[in-house]
Design goal:
heterodimer; A: mainly alpha; MetI-like fold; globular; B: 336 residues; Rossmann fold; 2 domains; 12 strands; 22% strand
């Protein structure tokens, strides 16, 4: 077990290094001169040269790469090309906003999905099951941006229950402040993107849980549990659902990918100042340091997620041994 | 009072092609301490009968008539909660498949313990002591109580299932082909163990199997099932020497016996379709002794002696027909 964890950690380091390297060169190969977006090409050549020197873009690629690696070890992603603020600071600020929206939403989606899927499979064959499956399949097939816009149209514009976007009413908190997160205004803005994302993301775990449960229910050990005289609740939660969680746990690394993709779409539609929106802004502005930082963060999260899922699977299923 | 008294039980499955009659007019009495064997081909309803007694039928099954009385109390009428309380405490079961009957992600002791704690309030230490005692009783090292099922061999898992079944000292034990997945040597060990435990603890047993020889070795009485009906019932000795149903005689011919040159003879044809059972005797289409009446009339159970009964219109003539039934040619005749 210890040997397995150490080996996996070594693999993770290698994967991460490959990601860092790939990302650095990939961005340098992209067309487009970042200085062009910051300083108008109409300005004099001397100003542009000074700009290039300031960001180290006049150095050979290899020197740039080594400097990049050196800076990464102290979490220095460089300065944003657009705002000249440290890229990591920008990311950090936005990351909190994203985590506050996406993390509770994904946890809720998986919890509701797992229990909902288990329950409809347990009471299979009814109208309730058919309608839930139909609804989940339809929701899952719909594009997330479309659902978000529809939700804004109905609940914000027509019914006026929720604001149409932003994290708090614009102008209430001019500077970044943690106080913002403690207001009812923040929760009011959080509600609609949270609900849309949760509803959309819960379809996959729900449908997966349902189909796993349907085969688990037919297992001999579930019948034996019932023959032992266990209450239906204990048969459902202690045996059928407990064992059906295994396939769901393997999807954990995939969830991270969906969470990121979902955050980009949700934040763009709801003007939520999170990491997803920052990425969109940075990409369209060729803001390399910020994009690299954000991508790197996502890569680290995904690699960590895969690692955690592997360990979790071993905890859930004693038949798995780590060698 | 009989420990288990099944009377006129009808059970149907709802299927896409209409109702399927899985059990009809099944009556069976099990006295305290007695061992009864139920034999029949696959699909004759023997496993369904045990599940019905345990009250764990699939959702598309429904008991449409009859009673299942446990110590005089009708479980069908008593309702699901009362039935649940009787399960395992009054009547326990050794499940069919040792390989899949244990939950793979739970430790063996926990699976035995939950059977105990569901029905009795006991301290942790008492449950633990009882679990170890049970494992020792069936010949499994109690030191392995904390192991997971996949760490046991098939025979060991079957022993664990027996230990689990005995956890609450039930007066009645059902066994649904308890050794099908195991090799003959382990099978023999398991049955010896069950026999010894029965001598020690005195529980009654209903053994369901397609293996007539196992029943003859291990039981006091036999019930033969065919197409959802009990077609013959009686003491092992009576059935073995003077069976009065052609189906039982056919099953008997299908046994291979050591020291005998004769090849086992099989019964041609297939069991009846539960969606559309034959109008008369259900065995008539495969029966070499069927007469015209057999295809029209439904036979009822006929008492041949105090404890022996058969569901055959020609049961009374069977003494004359029996020699012919032992000949392979009889079963090769024209079949539909």
């Amino acid at each position: 077990m210890t040997a397995y964890v150490l080996r996996r950690l070594a693999y993770m380091a290698i994967t991460l290094f490959a990601m860092i390297t790939l990302m650095f060169f990939m961005f340098r190969l992209l067309p487009g001169d970042p200085t062009a977006t910051v300083i108008s090409p109409a300005l004099d050549e001397g100003a542009r040269e000074a700009m290039r020197r300031r960001f180290g873009l006049d150095q050979p690629l290899l020197t740039q790469y080594l400097a990049y690696l050196r800076n990464l070890t102290v979490l220095d992603f460089g300065l944003s090309f657009r705002t000249s603020a440290p890229a990591w600071e920008m990311i950090e600020l936005r990351l909190v906003n994203t985590l506050l929206l996406i993390l509770p939403s994904m946890i809720a989606a998986y919890a509701i999905g797992a229990f909902g899927g288990a329950l409809i499979a347990w009471h299979r064959g009814g109208k309730a099951e058919a309608s839930v499956v139909l609804f989940a399949t339809a929701m899952q097939s719909a594009p997330l941006f479309w659902l978000s816009m529809l939700a804004i149209l109905v609940f914000s514009i027509l019914l006026g229950w929720f604001p149409t976007g932003h994290i708090v009413t614009p102008g209430r908190f001019p500077g970044p402040s943690w106080r913002m997160y403690l207001t009812a205004d923040f929760l009011h803005h959080l509600a609609l993107p949270f609900l849309v994302n949760t509803l959309y993301q819960l379809c996959f775990p729900l449908l997966l849980m349902r189909s796993t449960m349907l085969s688990t229910i037919g297992e001999d050990y579930v019948e034996l549990a019932r023959m032992k005289g266990l209450t239906e609740r204990r048969v459902l939660y202690g045996h059928a659902m407990r064992n059906s969680l295994l396939p769901l746990a393997t999807t954990l690394p995939m969830i991270l990918g969906w969470a990121v993709a979902g955050s980009v779409v949700i934040e763009t539609v709801f003007s939520w100042p999170g990491l997803g929106l920052l990425m969109i802004e940075a990409i369209s502005g060729s803001d390399y340091p910020v994009v690299q930082g954000a991508f790197l963060l996502i890569a680290v999260l995904t690699i960590l997620g895969t690692f955690v899922a592997d360990l979790l699977y071993g905890l859930l299923d004693p038949r798995i041994t780590y060698r | 009072m009989a420990i288990l008294d099944i009377e006129g039980l009808d059970l149907r499955y709802r299927t896409d092609r209409g109702p399927a009659e899985a059990l009809s007019e099944v009556s069976l009495r099990v006295e305290r301490g007695e061992a009864i064997g139920i034999v029949g081909e696959s699909g004759c309803g023997k496993s369904t009968l045990l599940k019905a007694v345990m009250g764990v039928m699939p959702p598309n099954a429904a008991i449409t008539a009859g009673a299942i009385r446990f110590e005089g109390r009708d479980l069908v009428a008593a309702g699901p909660e009362a039935w649940r309380r009787i399960r395992w405490k009054g009547v326990a079961m050794i499940a069919q498949s040792a390989l899949n009957a244990l939950n793979p992600v739970k430790r063996v002791d926990a699976q035995i313990a939950e059977a105990i704690t569901t029905h009795e309030s006991r301290t942790r230490a008492e449950v633990e002591a009882r679990t170890r005692e049970l494992l020792a009783l069936v010949g499994v090292d109690p030191g392995r109580a904390r192991d997971y099922p996949h760490q046991f061999s098939g025979g060991m898992r079957q022993r664990v299932l027996i230990a689990m079944a005995l956890a609450l000292r039930p007066p009645l034990l059902l066994a649904d082909e308890p050794t099908t997945a195991l090799d003959v040597i382990v099978q023999d060990q398991i049955f010896r163990r069950i026999g010894a435990l029965r001598g020690e603890l005195g529980f009654a047993m209903v053994l369901v199997t397609h293996d007539l020889a196992l029943v003859i070795e291990n039981c006091d009485r036999i019930a033969v099932m065919y197409g959802g009906l009990v077609v013959e019932e009686g003491p092992v000795a009576a059935i073995a020497t003077a069976s009065c149903h052609p189906y039982t005689l056919g099953l008997y011919n299908a046994l291979s016996r050591l020291g005998q040159r004769r090849q086992p003879v099989s019964i041609p044809g297939r069991p009846p379709d539960p969606l559309a059972p034959p109008a008369g005797c259900r065995f008539a289409p495969r029966c070499p002794f069927a007469i015209e009446r057999c295809h029209r009339e439904r036979p009822v159970m006929q008492a041949l002696s105090a404890r022996h009964a058969a569901r055959c219109l020609r049961a009374a003539e069977m003494n004359d027909l029996r020699p012919a039934a032992a000949l392979p040619e009889t079963w090769e005749g024209p079949q539909p």
